[in-house]
Design brief:
By secondary structure, the protein is an all-alpha fold. The chain has a domain of 124 residues: Orthogonal Bundle (Tetracycline Repressor, domain 2). α1 packs across α4, α5 packs antiparallel against α9 and α7 packs across α8. The longest helix is centred in the first third of the chain and has 25 residues. It is elongated, with a radius of gyration of 18 Å. The N and C termini lie far apart (57 Å).
Length: 184
């Protein structure tokens, strides 16, 4: 029997490849080559599955990255570069998934609430790193948004901006950062 995580990962794959309309019990069962009984054992129905899937997306594609960046050390610059590397180099990262979740959010109130929360959490984290770098409070909001919008925009253009090009763009943006505050 597949684990709950297996079902959620399958859902992210289906969502990424085919979009939210393809998130059906039949499609998920076919994807995992399992019966509906296993699905109902874990979720009870599609409404619960979609809620759990959105939570899983938030945890894996936001919380895990922030936790990873925080483990990079005390330097805000190290955290920023580690975050960038995690997001761009993670083999599990699928930019189509981010696009699919945004498209889903245009059609579904629960997905929209999740997208709003995820976007806010990501921008808030970037703001906090900007402040740690010694950036002014007045610049923290716009810079947090700028750093995030560069990533979102890079995923939306066709073809998407490559990881190497995106790293160059972030290096340029981070040259705008003041020298990190030093503890005395």
């Amino acid at each position: 029997m597949a684990s709950k995580r297996d079902w959620l990962e399958a859902g992210l794959e289906v969502l990424s490849e085919e979009g939210a309309p393809a998130l059906t019990i039949e499609r998920l069962c076919a994807h995992l080559n399992l019966t509906k009984g296993s699905f109902y054992h874990h979720f009870g129905g599609m409404a619960r599955y979609k809620s759990d899937l959105l939570e899983h997306f938030e945890s894996e594609h936001t919380g895990r990255y922030i936790d990873g960046a925080e483990s990079a050390g005390d330097s805000a610059q190290a955290k920023l570069y580690h975050l960038l590397n995690l997001v761009l180099d993670d083999k599990d990262t699928d930019h189509d998934l981010e696009i699919a979740v945004r498209a889903w959010a245009l059609q579904d109130a629960e997905a929209r609430a999740l997208q709003r929360r995820v976007d806010q959490l990501r921008v808030d984290y970037l703001r906090s790193l900007w402040r740690e770098l010694g950036g002014s409070e007045d610049d923290a909001g716009p810079m947090g948004r700028l750093l995030y919008l560069v990533l979102v925009g890079a995923q939306q253009v066709v073809p998407p901006v490559s990881a190497g090009e995106l790293k160059e763009i972030y290096a340029l943006a981070l040259r705008l950062a003041p020298q990190e505050r030093r503890s005395e």
